[in-house]
Amino acid sequence: MTLRFRETPDSFIVFLADAGLRDDPQVAETGMGLLDVCRRAASAGKNLIVDFREVEYMSSAMIGNFVLLNRLVRQLGVDVRLANLGPHVRQLFKICRLDEIFRYDDDGDNPGFAGAPVPNPKPPGTLSNHADPPEE
User: Measured between alpha carbons, how far is 124 from 127 in angstroms, rounded to an integer?
Assistant: First the structure.
């Protein structure tokens, strides 16, 4: 799996590019990629938006990756927002109480994101093997 991403002047937007985040190698690669992009966002002083528009299912191991992401976010001071969660994934976050930790793009209470909607990808780059993002 590759993470697709787009960089804006104030954010890294990561698009999870799979309908079902369930098998171990895929989940591990996705988790490492998220942590890597989080570190990049921190070093660039940018926000991080994780876009779920293509995700229909997540395994418990993937939920564990978001717990790890939360720890790193707190250490690095990165502002993170989850975007375009479908009803099943949103319900899973609620059951796991991750909805109390992460904010969603429709919360509208964070001036750092200025309530701006998360844009559709226009053609995104890819983050494969955690390489540096290409220059735009």
Answer: 10
